[in-house]
Amino acid sequence: MQELVERVARQLTARHRMLATAESCTGGLIAAECTDLSGSSVWFDRGFVTYSNEAKSHMLGVSPELIQLYGAVSEPVALAMALGAVYRSKATAAVAVTGIAGPTGGSPGKPVGTVWIAWCLDGQTSAELKHFVGDRQSIRRQTVEAALQGLLERLSV
After folding, report:
1. Which of 6, 36, 46, 114 has its Cβ near the most Cβ atoms within 10 Å?
2. Is residue 123 exposed (0-12), middle (13-18) or buried (19+ Cβ within 10 Å)?
3. pLDDT for position 10
4. Distances from the Cα of 122 to the Cαs of 82, 92, 99, in angstroms?
């Protein structure tokens, strides 16, 4: 994971960008991986841990109606989280994650391991649906890796 973070750091630094994270199911693990790297204050602005729906609305400006209509684990909410992280920070890049890490909380339509990851770069957003397998810790680690890998891919375009 450290090598992946170092690659993200190089891309962000070369482009004079700052990163913000908006995390639900990972509870701050993406921010922790980023700030484990010495000198990360050059490219990492802040992390929002918005585990509850109320926190998503209060901290990131996600509409409660959006959450009610689509559910917290949805593409529209993930995209709104990424945009909110940029708008409520000094960052020009953001990654957001919302999902069901388990072992409880799943449903037939959204089983454990369902995760939406969204990115925002210069106001342009994109999102991907992932279905991870494993226990809670494994799903959270896979989410962190996929979020950072997706960020790197978008920065490298």
Report:
1. 114
2. exposed
3. 98
4. 11, 6, 24
Beta-strand (E) ranges in 39-102?
44-49, 93-99
Report yes or no: 116 and 74 within 8 Å, Cβ to Cβ: yes
What is the Rg, in whole angstroms, of the alpha carbon atoms belonging to the chain? 14
Token pair for 154: 């978008």
Give CA–CA dist 123/86, Å, rounded.
Answer: 8
User: Cβ–Cβ contacts within 10 Å for residue 49, how many?
Assistant: 17
Instruction: Say if CB 14 and CB 26 are below 8 A apart.
Output: no
Q: Any residues with CB less than 8 A from the CB of 112 and at least 6 apart, and which? A: 100, 101, 102, 103, 104, 105, 106, 139
Residues belonging to the chain = 157
Q: Does domain 2-155 have CATH number 3.90.950.20?
A: yes
Domain boundary assignment for the chain: 2-155
Q: How many Cβ atoms are within 10 Å of 4's Cβ, its own excluded?
A: 15
Containing 67, the helix (H) or strand (E) segment is helix 64-70
pLDDT at res. 157: 83
